[in-house]
């Protein structure tokens, strides 16, 4: 026998289609069953209107890179949020008058032409000054300069630029007097009159010398205060004391002045009587 050698054919494996799940089969067979029942119903009755299937639109999923490339800025559409409304009026501020301004306005006197700083008050009650914050700083500097000028003579006796010891008490006394203190806190109530007069004269000499030197050197000092002398009034007498004279040791003593005030001026005797010389007088005629 002759043997023929040839190429062996390869067995081609036919791939079977994968089985669809039962859920997909039921969905595919469901329209066929409905179609059969529809045809059977139309054969017995009138045909039914055609049913339109709804088209389901799948949402498009965009990548983040595409969102960044297609960004055109902030949209004008506002997001839904809590809307807050404040009932405040920008023009609710009104000029408020201070007590001094109100008193001068209600008085009948002519107001002075001194400039006053107007203060604005809003509806809540807060003060709003027209002047800037620099005005407050300037006032503090002016006060410090006035204190330096009034207390500069205290720094002459010491090399230390700060006040200490006795000079600090003197500076405190000067500040209290500038605020309206009637008497000095360093004044001694009980001392001999000669010592007190000497202290007063020495202090006045120092003050005049200080002002003279400042005037010569072109230094501006504080305004000198005018001290009024105490006018001795009437002496207060106790209750039940005599209004005239002095009562001492159970005896009332009257001075010549008191007696003169009681008696008054003396009258000089007149040389001519009432009615004049002869024949004068009423009812003094000759008897008939």
Automatic annotation (TrEMBL):
<dbReference type="InterPro" id="IPR027973">
    <property type="entry name" value="FSAF1-like"/>
</dbReference>
<feature type="compositionally biased region" description="Basic residues">
    <location>
        <begin position="1"/>
        <end position="18"/>
    </location>
</feature>
<feature type="region of interest" description="Disordered">
    <location>
        <begin position="1"/>
        <end position="33"/>
    </location>
</feature>
<feature type="compositionally biased region" description="Basic and acidic residues">
    <location>
        <begin position="256"/>
        <end position="266"/>
    </location>
</feature>
<dbReference type="InterPro" id="IPR053030">
    <property type="entry name" value="Ribosomal_biogenesis_FAF1-like"/>
</dbReference>
<feature type="region of interest" description="Disordered">
    <location>
        <begin position="187"/>
        <end position="210"/>
    </location>
</feature>
<dbReference type="GO" id="GO:0000462">
    <property type="term" value="P:maturation of SSU-rRNA from tricistronic rRNA transcript (SSU-rRNA, 5.8S rRNA, LSU-rRNA)"/>
</dbReference>
<dbReference type="Pfam" id="PF15375">
    <property type="entry name" value="FSAF1"/>
</dbReference>
<dbReference type="GO" id="GO:0005730">
    <property type="term" value="C:nucleolus"/>
</dbReference>
<feature type="region of interest" description="Disordered">
    <location>
        <begin position="256"/>
        <end position="288"/>
    </location>
</feature>
<feature type="compositionally biased region" description="Basic and acidic residues">
    <location>
        <begin position="19"/>
        <end position="28"/>
    </location>
</feature>
<protein>
    <submittedName>
        <fullName>Uncharacterized protein</fullName>
    </submittedName>
</protein>
């Amino acid at each position: 026998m002759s043997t023929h050698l040839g190429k062996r054919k390869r067995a081609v494996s036919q791939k079977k289609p994968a089985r669809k799940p039962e859920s997909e089969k039921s969905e595919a067979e469901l329209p066929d069953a409905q179609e059969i029942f529809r045809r059977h119903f139309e054969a017995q009755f009138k045909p039914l209107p055609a049913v339109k299937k709804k088209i389901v639109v799948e949402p498009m999923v965009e990548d983040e890179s595409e969102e960044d490339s297609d960004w055109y800025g902030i949209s004008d559409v506002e997001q839904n949020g809590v809307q807050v409304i404040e009932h405040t009026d920008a023009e609710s501020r009104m000029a408020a008058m201070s007590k001094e301004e109100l008193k001068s306005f209600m008085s009948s006197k002519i107001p002075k032409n001194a400039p006053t700083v107007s203060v604005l008050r809003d509806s809540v009650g807060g003060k709003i000054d027209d002047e800037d914050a620099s005005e407050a700083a300037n006032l503090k500097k002016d006060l410090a300069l006035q204190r330096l000028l009034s207390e500069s003579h205290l720094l002459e006796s010491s090399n230390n630029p700060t006040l200490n010891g006795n000079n600090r008490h003197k500076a405190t006394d000067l500040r209290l007097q500038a605020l309206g203190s009637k008497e000095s806190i360093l004044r001694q109530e009980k001392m001999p009159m000669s010592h007190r007069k000497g202290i007063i004269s020495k202090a006045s000499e120092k003050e005049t010398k200080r002002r003279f030197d400042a005037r010569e050197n072109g230094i501006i000092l504080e305004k000198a205060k005018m001290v009024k002398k105490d006018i001795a009034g009437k002496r207060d007498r106790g209750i039940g004391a005599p209004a005239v004279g002095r009562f001492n040791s159970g005896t009332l003593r009257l001075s010549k002045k008191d007696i003169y005030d009681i008696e008054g001026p003396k009258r000089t005797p007149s040389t001519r009587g009432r009615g004049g010389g002869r024949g004068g007088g009423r009812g003094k005629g000759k008897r008939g």
